[in-house]
Design brief:
The structure holds 2 protein chains of 2 kinds.
Chain A (H helix, E strand, L loop, with lengths): L2 E4 L3 E5 L4 E3 L1 E4 L4 E8 L5 E7 L5 E3 L5 E5 L4 E6 L8 E9 L6 E2 L3 E6 L1
Parallel strand pairs in A: 2-12
Antiparallel strand pairs in A: 1-4, 3-9, 5-6, 5-10, 7-8, 8-9, 10-11, 10-12
Chain B lengths: L3 E4 L2 E4 L5 E7 L5 E7 L5 E9 L2 E4 L6 E3 L9 E3 L8 E8 L10 E2 L3 E5 L1
Parallel strand pairs in B: 2-11
Antiparallel strand pairs in B: 1-3, 3-8, 4-5, 4-9, 5-6, 7-8, 9-10, 9-11
């Protein structure tokens, strides 16, 4: 069975600092990978996804992620965060050919002034 | 605008009562999903459906039931058998072909509180 580990439950950073949110997955087969963002009391919004091709994926709001197959990781990065990036971020994986997503437990990013 | 609607946003029920959460999508998506979200637990799959009149159990289906009589609608009933129903419930949908395959679109959620 697939699983997703988000290594940090909470990440505090100062405004304009860089940030990396870590995600590792376990799967012996080819996968699709996703990062979603959730603002308080709202649904999830897709930030970016990796399906195939280039391992560096660019998403919305200046975020990017790098797929590393050998390390089974898909870390999310942003070079300079804003207060408005304060939210919870979820990494998710699905096996190719499956319609189901498996989510990590989330990382709460808090951007302080 | 296309999207997913969930109603109501907040729902309060007494213990022992069944309650039905609504989910409607006008994206013409094939598949629909229900998740439960608890603090620090991420999202856990309750039920999903790929086609009308068919659905499958997810990881935590006990105490829940669903129906899929129309492509655009996928209501979730939280029954009195669900031991701890207070949670945030999220509905999602996805298309099962093309470049957006596996990309799930989420509704705004329903927060259920059982008193």
């Amino acid at each position: 069975a697939q699983s997703v580990t988000q290594l940090d439950s909470q990440v505090p950073v100062f405004e304009e600092a860089p940030v990396e949110l870590r995600c590792n997955y376990s799967s012996s087969v080819s996968v699709y990978l996703f990062w979603y963002v959730q603002y308080p009391n709202q649904g999830l919004q897709l930030l970016l996804k990796y399906l195939s091709g280039s391992t560096l994926v660019k998403g919305i709001n200046g975020f990017e992620a790098e797929f590393n197959k050998s390390q089974t990781s898909f870390h999310l990065r942003k070079p300079s965060v804003h207060i408005s990036d304060t939210a919870e971020y979820f990494c998710a994986v699905s096996r190719r050919g499956s319609e189901k997503l498996v989510f990590g437990k989330g990382t709460k990013l808090t951007v302080n002034p | 605008d296309g999207g997913i609607t969930q109603s109501p946003k907040y729902l309060f029920r007494k213990e022992g009562q069944n309650v039905t959460l609504s989910c409607e999508q006008n994206l013409n998506h094939d598949a629909m999903y229900w998740y439960r979200q608890d603090p620090g637990q991420g999202l856990r799959l309750i039920y999903y459906s790929q086609i009308v009149n068919d659905f499958q159990k997810g990881d935590i289906a006990e105490g829940y039931s669903v129906s899929r009589e129309k492509k655009e609608s996928f209501p979730l009933t939280v029954t009195s058998a669900q031991k701890n129903p207070t949670a945030f419930y999220l509905c999602a949908s996805s298309i099962l072909a093309g470049p957006s395959y596996n990309e799930q679109f989420f509704g705004p959620g329903t927060r259920l509180t059982v008193l």
